[in-house]
TrEMBL record:
<feature type="domain" description="GAF">
    <location>
        <begin position="41"/>
        <end position="146"/>
    </location>
</feature>
<dbReference type="InterPro" id="IPR051330">
    <property type="entry name" value="Phosphatase_reg/MetRdx"/>
</dbReference>
<protein>
    <submittedName>
        <fullName>GAF domain-containing protein</fullName>
    </submittedName>
</protein>
<dbReference type="InterPro" id="IPR000614">
    <property type="entry name" value="FRMsr_CS"/>
</dbReference>
<dbReference type="InterPro" id="IPR003018">
    <property type="entry name" value="GAF"/>
</dbReference>
<comment type="similarity">
    <text>Belongs to the free Met sulfoxide reductase family.</text>
</comment>
<dbReference type="InterPro" id="IPR029016">
    <property type="entry name" value="GAF-like_dom_sf"/>
</dbReference>
<dbReference type="Pfam" id="PF13185">
    <property type="entry name" value="GAF_2"/>
</dbReference>
Amino acid sequence: MKNEFYDVLDRQVTALFTGEDDLVCAMANFSALLNDQLDDINWVGFYQVKNNQLVLGPFQGKLACTRIPLGKGVCGTAASTNTTQRVADVHQFAGHIACDAASNSEIVIPFVRNNEVIAVLDIDSPIFDRFDQDDQKGLEKMVKSLEFVLFG
C-alpha cells in the first residue's frame, strides 16, 4: 500500500517538474507537495550546500536553523557522507541539532548533481520511528526523479 502511494507521488514529481529548470522553484513546490501528502510530519524542506555548510532553502513548517556545518547533526551527516540518514529517535543521534523541540524522528536524503551533494531533503516528524524502509525507498526514488527532471 505504501509503495503504491510513493509510486503515485513519484509520477506526480515527473509530471509537475518536467520542463522546470529553476532549482529554488522546484525545491519549493517539492516541499509543498510532500507537506501536503505526508502524514505525521512537522517540517519538510531543503538545505543547500554553500561555502562548506548547509544553508536553509525552501521549506514548509516552523522557523528553522539557518546554517548547519557539514558533518554536524543529521542533515550535515547526510550531506558529508552522501547517504540517507533515517533516525527513529533524534534525541539518541549524537550531535543532533534541535531546530524544533517537537521533532522526534527524521529522514534526510542527499540531493545530488554531477555526483556532488548540492542539498539535502530534510523531513521531521513529532512521531518516534515515523519513517520506515518503505518511506526511505519511496522518498529516495522521488528525489532521484527530481534530480533527473532538473539535471538530466
